[in-house]
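Hey L., structure's done. Input below.
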Amino acid sequence: MLEIIKEPWPWYIAGPLIGLTVPALLIMGNKSFGISSSLRHICAACIPANVNFFKYDWKKEAWNLFFVLGIFFGGMIAANFLLNPSEITVNPDLKTELAGYGITDYTNLVPNQLMNFESLLTLRGFIMMVVGGFLVGFGTRYAGGCTSGHAIMGLSNLQWPSLVATICFMIGGFLMANLILPIILSL
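Output:
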C-alpha cells in the first residue's frame, strides 16, 4: 500500500478525488473550496489594523485555516516519508529543450537550477521567484480567487466569473510556457 502512495497517481484517480472535495465541502457545511482566501483570514486574525478589507468575522472561516494547515502538514509528511527515490519522469523532448537552458537536475519536483537561494540573486531567478510570486498574488487578488477556487469550485457551481477566470488562467499559462518562459530561461 505504501508503494502505491509513493507513486504518482494517474489523472483519472487524482482528478476525481480532487473533484469530490467540492461536494464533500458543500455537504459538510456549505463551504467553498479555495486556498488564497486563507491568507486574508490569517491577516484579519493577526493584524489589528483598521483596514476595511480585514474587518469581518474571520472566525466563521476558521475551518479554511485548518484545511490549509492540513495541506501544509500533509506536504511535510509526504516530503519526509513518502518521497519516491526515482528521478522525476520528464518527456525526453522537454529534457532536450531544457538542457539547452542548463536545466538537467530532475531529482526534485522543481529543478535545482531554477529554485535555490543562489539563483535568487540572478536576474533569471529574481524574475522567476520574486516577480512571478508577485504576479501570482496580484492575479489571485485581481481575479477574486485562485485557480483551485475558480477552476475546481467555481466551475462546478457553474459560476460565470469562474469560467472567465479559468479561461484567462489557461491563456496566461499557455503564453507563459510557450512565449515568455523561454526568454526568461535564456537570461
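The mean pLDDT is 87. The two ends are 44 Å apart (CA to CA).

-- N.
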